Every structure is written in C-alpha cells, then in structure tokens.
Amino acid sequence: MFDAKRKSADNDRPKKEDVMRARTYINTIVATAASATTAFAANGAQADEPGLLVWAFMGFAAVIVAGQLVPAAMLVIGAVKAIFAKPEEAKIKG
What we know:
- By secondary structure, this protein is mostly helical.
- The chain folds into 2 domains: 1-46; 52-90.
- It is built from 3 helices and no strands.
- The chain has helices spanning 16-35, 52-84, 87-90.
- The chain is elongated, with a radius of gyration of 36 Å.
- The termini are far apart.
C-alpha cells in the first residue's frame, strides 16, 4: 500500500495521500466485514391451517374474479367477430 520511494523530503514519514489511501482500504474492509451478518429467516413455525375467515375471503375474491371474466370474454368475442366480419355485416343496420 505504501510506496517506499514516495516519502517526504523533510522526514521519513509517508505522504498524506498514501495514509489516506490506506485508511480508505482499511475502512472499506471493516465496513464490508461488519455488514456481513446472518439472515434472520423464519423458523418454520406457522399456523396449522387457514381459518374460516381466510376461506371466506378467498371465496369472495374468486366470485369477483369469475364475475369479471364473463364481461371480459364477451368483449373479446365481440372484438374477434368484428375483426373477421365482412364490411357489409359491420355496418349499423337502420
């Protein structure tokens, strides 16, 4: 880290740049080592099974999703029919 050739002319101390560079390296190593900790994961303890409220919520969500699939399917079918329809059939009858 220190270069023996790069010393001050007035004394045998290393230059301030070399000291700062060495301190930077040491601080980087210390910060990296200090931040390397173990992960605190769950130990596997959980409830035996979901309760009645969880199943009710999941059922309610399924009803909402199924209710939204019907209009979405109708919209897609209508768009496909409009794309592949002949130009005469696509006009508004009136």
